[in-house]
């Protein structure tokens, strides 16, 4: 598709990958709605990149339904969902509580499912759409302390494959991107110390560029899944 034809909904859009992707789409002539929980940060990001802010916590079904309804009302030709809302908290198995894993699944997995479900209803009606799920290298392999986060991202990968099988007959491309470590607020949000900028590691704009490349492929084809790694991180 032509990037200027994009009418996108981007969850987790107030910072990091979501914000950078919205900026790239708007600069290419497309339009974007960004959604997030923190109203102040969301509106600041929207003003900065030229997007439309809609406050939403994807853990709550009623808010998700309202979010997609507002998107369809704003964009008659709503055609791209970028499922980016997510966070990580890390703990070894022996210290992991049921509530810790439930919380991450509600946002990273169930939240993504609900936004995709409501969007797919619209995409099926118009017989066209695009869904990109932002997963992680943690959705491909596990690591110490990653039980909750890794489980949520492995589940997202499985759902992506299911949606792809269901939605291809309706001309809906379902794609997934797996970034390795990206220098965003993710680390601080996970309760870790802020790290100094490292020019050898990925930045949000790298992932935004990749997402736009996936969308820009002619509609007769699509990239089912791609991973982005830093070349030689130090």
TrEMBL record:
Top-level taxon: Bacteria
Q: What SUPFAM superfamilies does the record point to?
A: NAD(P)-binding Rossmann-fold domains (SSF51735)
InterPro entries for the chain = NAD(P)-bd_dom_sf (IPR036291), Sc_DH/Rdtase_CS (IPR020904), SDR_fam (IPR002347)
Task: Please indicate if the UniProt record lists Oxidoreductase as a keyword.
Answer: yes
The record's PROSITE patterns line, in alphabetical order, gives:
ADH_SHORT (PS00061)
A GO term from the CC aspect? membrane
Q: Which UniProt keywords apply?
A: Oxidoreductase
A GO molecular function annotation here is: oxidoreductase activity
Q: Which CDD domains match?
A: SDR_c (cd05233)
Instruction: Give the record's family classification.
Output: Belongs to the short-chain dehydrogenases/reductases (SDR) family.
Q: What is this protein called?
A: 3-oxoacyl-[acyl-carrier protein] reductase
User: From which organism does this entry originate?
Assistant: Fodinibius sediminis
């Amino acid at each position: 598709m032509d990037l200027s034809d994009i009418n996108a909904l981007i969850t987790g859009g107030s910072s990091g990958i979501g914000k950078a992707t919205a900026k790239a789409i708007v600069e290419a002539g497309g339009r974007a709605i960004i959604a997030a929980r923190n109203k102040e940060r969301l509106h600041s990001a929207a003003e900065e990149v030229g997007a439309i802010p809609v406050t939403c916590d994807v853990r709550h079904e009623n808010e998700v339904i309202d979010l997609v309804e507002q998107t369809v009302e704003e964009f008659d030709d709503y055609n791209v969902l970028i499922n980016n809302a997510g966070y990580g908290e890390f703990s070894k198995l022996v210290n992991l509580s049921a509530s810790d894993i439930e919380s991450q699944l509600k946002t990273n997995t169930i939240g993504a499912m609900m936004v995709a479900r409501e969007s797919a209803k619209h995409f099926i009606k118009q017989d066209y759409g695009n869904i990109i799920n932002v997963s992680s290298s943690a959705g491909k392999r596990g690591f110490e302390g990653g039980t909750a986060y890794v489980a949520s991202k492995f589940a997202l990968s499985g759902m992506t494959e299911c949606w792809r099988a269901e939605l291809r007959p309706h001309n809906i491309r379902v794609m997934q991107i797996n970034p390795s470590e990206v220098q965003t607020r993710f680390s601080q949000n996970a309760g870790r110390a802020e790290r100094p900028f490292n020019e050898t590691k990925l930045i949000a704009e790298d992932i935004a560029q990749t997402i736009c490349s996936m969308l820009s492929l002619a509609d007769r084809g699509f990239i089912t899944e791609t991973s982005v790694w830093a070349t030689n991180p130090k």
